[in-house]
Amino acid sequence: MGTSTDRTSGTGGAWTDLKYAATSYFRSTGQGSASPGSAKLLLARHVPVLGGAAAAAAGATAGRSSVQRLGGLLAGIGANGLDQALREASLDDLVGRDRFEIVDELVTALSGDGSGLDAAAARDAMCDVLEELFGDADTWEELQRTRATRDDIERLLHLFLTNYLYNRIPVIAERLGRITDPAAARRADRQMRQVIEDCVVINLPPDPLSVNWNGPEGRDIADQAMQVAYSTLESLA
């Protein structure tokens, strides 16, 4: 499970509102009484820290490019299988490798090396998606049986965006770390992720296998998803 990229150095203005909301939410979480409404308020308050919905979406550069690359990989798997999808992505050297090697290099190929807060958020989210994609497969023979239907593509892009948006939220990791009850921390984590998941909308065409994910169509899908998610989150306050 990826973790929220922790940024706690801001002060004043939107940062003050966010920290007050975080303090209230995590205090009630530790007491076992956190409400969905307080989770929504916390998540809404982080958007102004990122400059507002439009700026937050515009600044999600690593997430946007990762959506396009992931969409392209999944479409390739859906159309021709993993072997050909890797070759089409110029990752021929991964053909025949085991799960550990493939996942390790795919994460970097799809989301970069994780340098910088935004890139780290995308990389952590991509790790979660690839674990879900490959399931229990370990050997190349098992990995070759990986398939991606339209529903799979939508589900995995949705998972990536949910986790990526969560990972970009300031102060979350540090505040979760203060909760002494592991069960309470897990409940808070799940509750916040669920709120974000409900805000994510991905408008795929009827045949996502035919999308040019590296071109304008793929970019538009990623852009729209980011804009809708951040606008919806901001409106929760």
Q: What are the SSEs and their pairings?
A:
Elements: H1 14-30, H2 36-49, H3 53-58, H4 61-88, H5 99-111, H6 117-134, H7 140-143, H8 150-167, H9 172-178, H10 182-199, H11 216-234
Helix pairs in contact: 1-2, 2-10, 4-6, 4-8, 4-11, 5-6, 6-8, 8-10
Question: What distinguishing features does this structure have?
Answer:
237 residues, mainly alpha, 11 helices, 0% strand, globular
Tell me the Rg in angstroms.
18 Å
Number of strands: 0
* Unreliable stretches: none
Residue-averaged pLDDT:
93
The topology string of helices and strands comes to: HHHHHHHHHHH
Structural class: mainly alpha
Helicity range: 55-70%
What does the main sheet amount to? none
Strand content range = under 5%
Determine the N-to-C terminus distance.
Answer: 27 Å
How many helices? The count is 11
Shape designation = globular
Summarize the structure.
The chain is mostly helical and 237 residues long. It has helices spanning 14-30, 36-49, 53-58, 61-88, 99-111, 117-134, 140-143, 150-167, 172-178, 182-199, 216-234.
